[in-house]
Write a structure and sequence with these properties.
The protein is 55% helix and 13% strand. The chain is an alpha/beta fold and 264 residues long. It folds into two domains: 155 residues, 3-Layer(aba) Sandwich (Rossmann fold); 92 residues, ProC C-terminal domain-like fold (Orthogonal Bundle), CATH 1.10.3730.10. It has an eight-stranded mixed β-sheet, sandwiched between helices. The two termini are 31 Å apart. The structure holds NADPH dihydro-nicotinamide-adenine-dinucleotide phosphate and (2S)-3,4-dihydro-2H-pyrrole-2-carboxylic acid. Pfam families: F420_oxidored, P5CR_dimer.
Length: 264
């Protein structure tokens, strides 16, 4: 039995993915803080919605999907009630496996995961690390859970905050760029719907080429950038405005914020 504790955006996305992958609703349970949320999850997925304590008692795998700021309270509630042999998987940004282990009975294995919202379309990037009591079999169980909803990569836990900044938040940066490009279309007099369609299809085409061509992004960009042409005129402006440096600093800031989160 797998229990998702705090089935909000990420928890629900994982829940729906796991069901799409063929697990039966009877193999899953979830918890929610508000009754209307519990009712919605029950109705939408036909799964049992239970209390955190009941989930901790009955499930063999607990997926913690509350916000980092709510993790301390949740662990205080369930920590002492988790039976030996339960696997704890945390999806929270910034929360270290040590933070969780300190609040659980000794030797409970913890796997830390950073996924992203494309879980919803089975295109997630999930990176996983073993806590100090987790071994190969626990990483395999986490991979089994996450592989149906996207790619999974093992990394050392020291890189988890960096991964949170890069791929956890990553989709937001692409959406932000799309927003800015659509604004540019508006500036040039395009109808909004047409601008959005052009930008989204360009993003999808670029993403598929990045994934499937095996070419380095620099070569793909060079192929678009004709000598004396239009693309280089745009790139000159991006360089002039320090966009590359802004990206480096933005992602470093996200990594640093992740490091602060366990402290509340
Ligand atoms: N959003 C994203 O893109 C990503 C988020 N994450 C991580 O995933 C985690 C969840 O984020 P997200 O899904 O966006 O957040 P949400 O706020 O959507 O989901 C968290 C859910 O947990 C519920 N909750 C809080 N405390 C408890 C409790 N004690 N018992 C039961 N339920 C509880 C909340 O209830 P209520 O509805 O009442 O607030 C909410 O529904 C975070 O730790 C975040 O760092 C990781 C990768 C990407
Ligand atoms: O912004 C956040 O804190 C979460 C973690 C990664 C993506 N969203």
């Amino acid at each position: 039995m797998i229990a998702i504790l705090g089935a909000g955006k990420m928890g629900e996305a994982l829940l729906s993915g796991v069901l799409r992958a063929g697990r039966r609703p009877s193999e899953l349970m979830a918890t929610a803080r508000r009754e209307e949320r519990a009712a919605l999850l029950r109705e939408r997925y036909g799964i049992e919605i239970v209390t955190n304590v009941e989930a901790a008692r009955r499930a063999s795998t607990l997926v913690l999907a509350v916000k980092p700021q709510d993790m301390g309270v949740l662990l205080e509630e369930i920590g002492p009630r988790i039976p030996a042999g339960t696997l704890v998987i945390s999806m929270a940004a910034g929360i270290t496996s040590a933070f969780i282990e300190e609040r659980l009975p000794e030797d409970v294995p913890v796997v830390r995961v950073m996924s992203n919202t494309p879980v919803l379309v089975d295109e997630a990037m999930s990176v996983i690390s073993a806590g100090s009591h987790a071994g190969e079999e626990h990483l395999k169980l986490a991979e089994e859970l996450l592989t149906p909803v996207g790619k999974v990569l093992r990394i050392p836990e020291s890189l988890q905050d960096g991964a949170t900044a890069l791929s956890g938040s990553g989709p937001a940066y692409f959406y932000y760029l799309v927003e800015a490009m659509v604004d540019a279309g508006i500036l040039l007099g395009m109808p909004r719907a047409a601008a959005l369609e052009m930008v989204i299809q360009s993003a999808v085409g670029a993403a598929v080429m990045l994934r499937d061509s095996g070419e380095h992004p620099v070569l793909l960009r060079e192929a678009v950038t004709s000598p004396g042409g239009t693309t280089i005129a745009a790139i000159r402006e991006l360089e002039k405005h320090g966009v590359r440096a802004a990206v480096l600093e933005a992602i470093e800031a996200a990594r640093n914020r992740g490091r602060e989160l366990a402290g509340g």
